């Protein structure tokens, strides 16, 4: 076990954990940190590096499951001690989550090969970083003065479906799943916290499904040599995603989206200078 390799795994897990659920594009950050500085594909090969990115994403997914554990139990009908008000009153339903997932799941299935072949490049990520920032700024400027939907339990089926359509934008690498869906939710009258909660809940099944399929596809890269590398990255991503999600959910109603949009534009400028303007 090389210490440098474990350091690389821990740093990439940190980057993944801190950026996966914030509306700043984890893809853009991974390009800067991994492709430019750490170059994990040189350690065990390109296929192992791709599997590693799937593994650390699953660490982030697990963190979201932990944060929303009671909510997922509730959705699956497994939570005990549910009051009559919770049972018959306003409550986010599993069918609403499914409705929100359908648009991106269908488009992702149909265009997976095209996305992998044509949209994973520096220039496309640059474009979507800026486009996503513009959407986030527009959402904050055009949102209703008073949200119609204060909590995630008040989301309607129509809102869930329309937020799902916004999530389709995140199929283009660099757009950011949370950036597109939180913006869409805010434009549809959700509070920033309600839009964030729904975004993170939807992210778990769609990210887990995509990660699981990718892991099965590249299972040959999982060897006795790479497993310690994967484990360190997974643990790092889980810990930092757990911290980032809790912090973000406390922060989002106060700072809104524009500060994150400005940060995205800064990341785009850095990418342009490092990779394009040479």
TrEMBL record:
Keywords, ordered alphabetically: Antibiotic resistance, Cell membrane, Cell shape, Cell wall biogenesis/degradation, Hydrolase, Membrane, Peptidoglycan synthesis, Transmembrane, Transmembrane helix
E.C. code: 3.6.1.27
One Pfam family here: BacA
Additional information: Bacitracin is thought to be involved in the inhibition of peptidoglycan synthesis by sequestering undecaprenyl diphosphate, thereby reducing the pool of lipid carrier available.
Membrane topology: Multi-pass membrane protein
GO molecular function: undecaprenyl-diphosphatase activity
Stated name of the protein: Undecaprenyl-diphosphatase
Classification lineage: Bacteria, Bacillati, Bacillota, Bacilli, Bacillales
Task performed by this protein: Catalyzes the dephosphorylation of undecaprenyl diphosphate (UPP). Confers resistance to bacitracin.
Chain's gene name: uppP
Ranges annotated as spanning the membrane: 51-73, 94-115, 121-142, 154-175, 195-215, 227-249, 261-277
GO cellular component: plasma membrane
A GO BP entry: cell wall organization
Family assignment from sequence similarity: Belongs to the UppP family.
EC supergroup of this enzyme: hydrolase
Catalytic activity: di-trans,octa-cis-undecaprenyl diphosphate + H2O = di-trans,octa-cis-undecaprenyl phosphate + phosphate + H(+)
Native organism: Weizmannia acidilactici
Cellular compartments annotated: Cell membrane
Location (main, coarse): membrane
């Amino acid at each position: 076990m090389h210490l440098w390799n474990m350091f690389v795994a821990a740093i990439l897990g940190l980057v993944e954990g801190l950026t996966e659920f914030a509306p700043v594009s984890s893809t853009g950050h991974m390009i800067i940190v991994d492709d430019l500085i750490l170059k994990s594909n040189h350690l065990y090969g390109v296929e192992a590096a791709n599997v590693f990115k799937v593994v650390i994403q699953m660490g982030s997914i697990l963190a979201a499951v932990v944060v929303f554990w009671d909510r997922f139990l509730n959705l699956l009908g497994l939570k005990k001690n549910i009051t009559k008000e919770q049972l018959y009153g306003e409550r986010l339903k599993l069918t609403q989550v499914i409705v929100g997932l359908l648009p991106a799941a269908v488009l992702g299935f149909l265009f997976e090969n095209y996305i992998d072949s044509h949209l994973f490049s520096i220039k496309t990520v640059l474009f979507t970083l800026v486009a996503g920032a513009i959407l986030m700024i527009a959402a904050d400027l055009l949102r209703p003065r008073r949200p119609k939907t204060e909590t995630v339990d008040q989301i309607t089926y129509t809102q869930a479906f329309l937020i799902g359509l916004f999530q389709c934008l995140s199929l283009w690498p660099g757009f950011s799943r949370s950036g597109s869906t939180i913006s869409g939710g805010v434009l549809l009258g959700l509070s920033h916290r309600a839009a964030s909660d729904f975004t993170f809940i939807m992210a778990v099944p769609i990210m887990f499904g995509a990660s699981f399929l990718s892991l099965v596809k590249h299972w040959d890269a999982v060897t006795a040599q790479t497993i310690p590398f994967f484990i360190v990255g997974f643990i790092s991503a889980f810990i930092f995603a757990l911290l980032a999600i809790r912090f973000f959910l406390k922060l989002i109603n106060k700072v809104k989206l524009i500060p994150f949009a400005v940060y995205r534009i800064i990341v785009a400028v850095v990418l342009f200078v490092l990779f394009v303007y040479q």
